User: Fold this.
Amino acid sequence: MPSIDKIEHLTPDQFNANKGTERGSASLENSLQKYGTGRSILIDKNGKIIAGNKTAEKAGLIGLDSVVVVPTDGTKLIAVQRIDLDLDKDIQARELAYADNRVSELDLEWDIDQMQLDAEKGIDFKDTGLWAKSEINKILDVDLELPDEFKIHEVINYSVENIKDHPRNYREHPDDQLDHIIESIKQHGLYRNIIISNDGTTLAGHGIMKAVRKMGIEEIPVTRLNINPESPQALKILTGDNEISRLAEINDRELSEILKGVKELDVEGLLGTGYDEMMLANLLMVTRPQSEINDINAASEWVGMPDFEPGDPVFTIIINCKSEELRQQFVDDHELQIIKREKKCWSTRYPWEDRYDLKSIRFEKND
Assistant:
């Protein structure tokens, strides 16, 4: 065992997984200069630093170059005694306690690359008891391990006749939507798998299932989950597949540009996008100022449609509220679903329809 009594006799760990921080480094130097050394560092039998690399480095830089080594095999607790301090009498001792903990907080930044290398070498961070599984997965940026009931089986081919609709499916799929789905399947194939439960009940993809039945397709790829169709997990998938997408914020102007490009370049037109020409013209009207699109005829021309002919009259009611809070209270009290929210004007329809039907919008000039 080599003789060690100077900092220079110690060997830093070149694979130390703590990169440290600029603020932590400054705090560590300040603590050593103001309070002196506190806790010990840890070295192996060859003098290589296991813990305390940053402390040893900073101590050497400020002139604390003498080292006292206490040999141990890990079966006894090593206590470093500061014979110059009395915790009950010296405020500096209490400040040192704070410094010891605070510097540890400030001077920690994990080296993710090094941790991943150590994991590849056999370190099981989840088995160390230092992190919860979710914490170490987040640090290492790996996929969270799912409980057994959420394990996804491989994609398999499944007979359409053995797939049934969920009895609690609450969304309808009208013919015009099915026309778009069918055209999309014809052009692009089934790029989104149906999700089914362990007994073949559809959890996600009811519209696609209705379309493939209409097309006469006999077998499709599905992802089967090992869960009961009436379990809370299954019902979350059933609702989440429909509702989570509603939380997205849509750049309607960019959408209209994409749809216009599709219409101009694809011989099939807009069929398969969920839009038709009238819906696109209406979208233009709600996404562009009057300086760009003056009226629905201008929108129709932009899309490449003939002039717009007014349809059935639309009856409206306007309710003025004295504040945003009262407006929100009115919406909540009457359980209204809002189509479009602008700063001072919100809109809905009655009776409510589940989808935003741009076909039904009619634009009129104000006097």
